[in-house]
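Spend some time on this chain, tokens included, and walk me through the fold:

. . .
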Amino acid sequence: MLCRRAGIPRFFIEVGGDERDRAAAALGIFSGDPAVQMVRSLREVPAAPNLYPAAACIRFSGNLVLGQSQLARAMEEYQAQPGTPLSIISADREHGGAMAIGPVGALVGASPLAFPPEPSAVSRAAAPSSGSLRNPVTLPFALNGRPEDREDAEIRLARAVRDESAGTDALMARIIDRRLSWRLSLRLARTRIRPNQVTMINTALGLGCAALLASTLYWLRLCGALLFLLSIVLDGVDGELARLRMLESRFGQRLDVITDNVVHVAIFAGMAIGCYRLSDSSAYFYVLPVLLAGFGACAVSVNRAISVAGDEAHRWIGKVERATGRDFAYILVILAIFDRLYYFIWGAAVGTHIFALSLWRLTDHYRKKRAGCDAADSASADVTTGKERL
């Protein structure tokens, strides 16, 4: 499944004649897949139809546990120097497995390269000799039959999933949230709980936080802010759990986004209602629609930026998410301690509109810049064509 998601179209499995039935049963849903073929020896692979000796392939040895990011990083390394075989040695004590990438003729041909080949820079980065769990890069990992291997591999895989999210997490999410969520995800991955169930449980918790924030009692509002902080931690669990159990789906992604927005609206509505009940000021009936309109304006600006600027817009928005994200939950707790939640309501009502307007103008600037580049390229092409005619 990992290889297929990485775009690898064909699979060959070396199986002895007396093990074919057991191997077919182990393949499960892939046993009848025409892209999956069992062979007596990998030496037969280069002779397969429509497969050339120079075609790139990945060869696995050992009972490996690896992550999607590990596989993608290795493929990128090979694509940077195509034709030059590289290997990644497993990070267990025995180094009992390996993953090699190179031309199929070099890895499994009639005169195959010694497998695994000489470890590359990728190997040394991925498989430190200590194999310590404290090292953030500890995959792939080979199961060598020891009773503790399974738990060891699960911990390494869960940490790898955590590290994959570090690039998009805000500061507090990296420092605190992920350190808690990956441990909870690891435990839930050993149960029958599914990611979408975690999403719905967390949504219910978020709505409960909104109800507490609407209270006039100080301690209930503080509990609401603290529970929302817990909800922020749980928000990362559903995605981590889906990747650990390979249950990612488009429906799950959409459900997560929709429920996050529902909870955010409910949280702000709860704070506005609580502030109104405390102050008896009708201004909060007006600030809430302004705040919700700001959310809508942000959504429109983000969609426009992505449609116009594509990957460039993703980089802009990614930087904003890393700078802010859902770290505002920590601000809510501080404000709740000092009973100043109304600061956040007014600040967010103004801030959302400023962000939407800034992103709109940034998109316009990018559009004009790209239009100027396209015009320059067109003029250069016209000059080149004119010279060719002369």
Notes: The first helix runs from residue 2 to 5. The mean pLDDT is 83.
